[in-house]
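User: Structure please.
Assistant: Input sequence and predicted structure:
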Amino acid sequence: MDNNLVSNTDIFTIKTVDQIKELWSKTYNNSGKPDWSHIIPYYANDVEFKDSIQYIKGIEDFTAMTERLSTRSNDLKMRVVNATKEGDIIFVEWEMTIIFKKRPSSIMYGASRLTLNEAGKIVFQRDYYDLWGDIFDNIPRFNKMYRKFMHSKFG
């Protein structure tokens, strides 16, 4: 673990946007399975996580979710496009490339809002992304049908 990521008292706290960029870029390694073990200590025990498909409360369930994602994918890469911090809120814009077993790779575009508690740990994470659109865009022929359907129903 890099010394600049840990406070002098060895308590894992988030202090800067650069720290988030560094942690998240290491979360999804360049080859092999993703690994969140280095970032889990930066989450509060009572963390809440919400995205378009699930709501999770507690570090045990959050850790289990990261392990499920790791076993479902052959490879996962994260590129932090932009990040900003104001007060106890951090916004991270990202591109995630995921290769599922026996499927073509898919790039998902999204953003996360992280809320820090008074101790500097992530207590709430809300992820925003278009799961099905980004996955369907990578399926030949089906991608055009899906986008046409979405345009006809939702504008």
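Confidence is low (pLDDT under 50) at residues 1-10.
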